[in-house]
């Protein structure tokens, strides 16, 4: 079965306090984004990799690839107004039938085991997302203040989120709403259930200077 991944990288680095978009910040001597693409190439040498970048960042990315002699083959799609529109642009380059994953460009520490697990389970369940347990105490904000809720009833969601290509294309044919915060929410809006797979705790999303420190330590 043909497999693809759409890697979405549209960050502007605002929470980093940096002029350099977070996906280009160096970790271990090379940009975060390169680590992410390499993780998926290690999973499958034949995997179609589609990188979604804002058009104004694409020349800089090509320059970085030359400087770092980066040779992981990939296609580039234009980023959209929102993550929803960016994924939709990437999907236009994916042919059905098959499986397609969607992954955050700033999650470079996803393990090969998690990638394999999500694609394998998607063959049967059609829509699979990796999750990890909540280890902190949670409080729910109410009109009266706040209250403790059971953390056993919640999971933290990661990527890659993997789907049948036909299903995800159909889902992204829907009209955009602000409630679409990830690909699972788009698919669920059609009434399709999403299967939960075990993720890995190191699969952090690098969005703050503290995350960069954690990333350097993980490397």
TrEMBL record:
**Function in brief:** Catalyzes the formation of 4-diphosphocytidyl-2-C-methyl-D-erythritol from CTP and 2-C-methyl-D-erythritol 4-phosphate (MEP).
Recorded hits in Gene3D superfamilies, A to Z, give: Spore Coat Polysaccharide Biosynthesis Protein SpsA, Chain A
EC id:
2.7.7.60
Gene Ontology terms describing biological process: isopentenyl diphosphate biosynthetic process, methylerythritol 4-phosphate pathway
Looking up PANTHER family in the UniProt record yields: 2-C-METHYL-D-ERYTHRITOL 4-PHOSPHATE CYTIDYLYLTRANSFERASE, CHLOROPLASTIC
Is this entry keyworded Nucleus? Answer: no
State which pathway it belongs to.
Isoprenoid biosynthesis; isopentenyl diphosphate biosynthesis via DXP pathway; isopentenyl diphosphate from 1-deoxy-D-xylulose 5-phosphate: step 2/6
Concerning InterPro entries, the annotation shows: IspD (IPR001228), IspD/TarI (IPR034683), IspD/TarI_cytidylyltransf_bact (IPR050088), Nucleotide-diphossugar_trans (IPR029044)
HAMAP family to which the protein is assigned, alphabetical: IspD (MF_00108)
What's the encoding gene here? ispD
The protein's name is 2-C-methyl-D-erythritol 4-phosphate cytidylyltransferase
Tell me which UniProt keywords the record has, alphabetically.
Isoprene biosynthesis, Nucleotidyltransferase, Transferase
Report any Pfam family annotated for this entry. Answer: IspD
Q: Which organism is it from?
A: Bacteroides faecis
Which SUPFAM superfamilies would you find in this protein's record? Nucleotide-diphospho-sugar transferases (SSF53448)
Residue numbers marked as site, Transition state stabilizer: 15, 22
Single GO molecular function: 2-C-methyl-D-erythritol 4-phosphate cytidylyltransferase activity
- Reaction equation(s) it catalyzes: 2-C-methyl-D-erythritol 4-phosphate + CTP + H(+) = 4-CDP-2-C-methyl-D-erythritol + diphosphate
Give yes or no: UniProt keyword Nucleotidyltransferase.
yes
């Amino acid at each position: 079965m043909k497999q693809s991944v759409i890697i979405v990288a549209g960050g502007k680095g605002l929470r980093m306090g940096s002029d350099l978009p977070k996906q280009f910040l160096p970790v271990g001597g090379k940009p975060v984004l390169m680590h992410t693409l390499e993780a998926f190439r290690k999973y499958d040498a034949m995997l179609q990799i589609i990188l979604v970048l804002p058009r104004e960042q694409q020349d800089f990315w090509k320059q970085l690839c030359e400087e770092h002699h980066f040779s992981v083959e990939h296609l580039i799609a234009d980023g959209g107004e929102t993550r929803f529109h960016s994924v939709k642009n990437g999907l236009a380059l994916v042919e059905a039938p098959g499986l397609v994953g969607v992954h955050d460009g700033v999650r470079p520490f996803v393990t090969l085991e998690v990638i394999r697990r999500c694609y394998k389970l998607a063959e049967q369940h059609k829509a699979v997302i990796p999750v990890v347990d909540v280890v902190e105490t949670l409080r729910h904000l109410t009109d009266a203040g706040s209250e403790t809720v059971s953390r056993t009833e919640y999971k933290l969601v990661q990527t890659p989120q993997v789907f049948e290509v036909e299903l995800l294309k159909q889902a992204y044919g829907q009209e955009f709403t602000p409630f679409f915060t990830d690909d699972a929410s788009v698919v669920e809006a059609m009434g399709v259930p999403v299967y939960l797979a075990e993720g890995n705790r190191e699969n952090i999303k690098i969005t703050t200077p503290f995350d960069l420190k954690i990333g350097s330590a993980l490397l």
